[in-house]
């Protein structure tokens, strides 16, 4: 899968508040579907769809033991989102630095005239 498609999957998964709350919950440690669904006021099939989106984006992974499915964070994909955001931040910081330098040059010219 192309890197931009992977980023699209990750940011799509992160775009929903329910999924972000699930990730926050999983950051405390692995949890079963029942444990993850407990704080949410929605039917289990709807909640499981959120888990499916998270698993398809590979932000989480699951394993099934008997009838119990347990989810945990898969940190590798978070690095991809972090790298994308870091690159955007660096680009903007560079633009602000150049703008700041331009303003300093204008002030210097203005003070000489």
Automatic annotation (TrEMBL):
Pfam families, per the entry: HTH_20
SMART domains recorded: HTH_ARSR
Highest taxon of the lineage: Bacteria
Signal peptide: none
Family annotation (InterPro entries): ArsR-like_HTH (IPR011991), HTH_ArsR_DNA-bd_dom (IPR001845), WH-like_DNA-bd_sf (IPR036388), WH_DNA-bd_sf (IPR036390)
Residues annotated as domain HTH arsR-type: 1-93
PANTHER family per UniProt: SLL0088 PROTEIN, TRANSCRIPTIONAL REGULATORY PROTEIN
Name of the protein: Metalloregulator ArsR/SmtB family transcription factor
């Amino acid at each position: 899968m192309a890197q931009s498609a992977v980023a699209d999957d990750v940011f799509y998964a992160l775009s929903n508040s329910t999924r972000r709350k699930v990730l926050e919950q999983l950051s405390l440690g692995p949890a079963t579907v029942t444990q993850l669904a407990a704080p949410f006021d929605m039917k289990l099939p709807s909640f499981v769809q959120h888990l499916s989106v998270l698993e398809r984006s590979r932000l989480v992974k699951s394993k099934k033991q008997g009838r119990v499915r347990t989810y945990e964070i898969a940190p590798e994909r978070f690095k991809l989102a972090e790298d994308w955001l870091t690159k955007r931040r660096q680009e903007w910081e560079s633009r602000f630095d150049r703008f700041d330098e331009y303003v300093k040059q204008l002030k210097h010219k203005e003070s000489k005239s």
